[in-house]
Amino acid sequence: MGIVTNKTDKYQTCIDACNRCAQACHECFTACLNEDDVAARKNCISILMDCACMCQSSAAKMSMDSQYAKEHCQMCATICDKCAQECEMFKDNHCQKCAQECKKCADECRKMAGM
């Protein structure tokens, strides 16, 4: 749960999902850059970075118990859904695994935004 307080324990599952998704997106970004069809992945590569940044920011907002955390997580869910959609277009393992993490994160962000 919380590291120095328990104030944000209610968000911990979502914080963890956001951190996992950001890591998955960074890893997938690097793997996509090394694929032979990198030009075809332009949109996917772009959304991977948007998604990673949004997930990191969402985790930070929840960790601070920000008054904007719920709205931020709602937007994060939207971006994660789009990233999952883009990654699913590519059949390689890293994109498929990233899509799964994005879907999990989107679900957790929607739950958090609904609290």
From TrEMBL:
This is Four-helix bundle copper-binding protein. InterPro entries: Csp_YhjQ, YHJQ-like. Gene3D superfamilies: 1.20.1270.360. It comes from Romboutsia maritimum. Pfam families: Csp. It comes from the Bacteria.
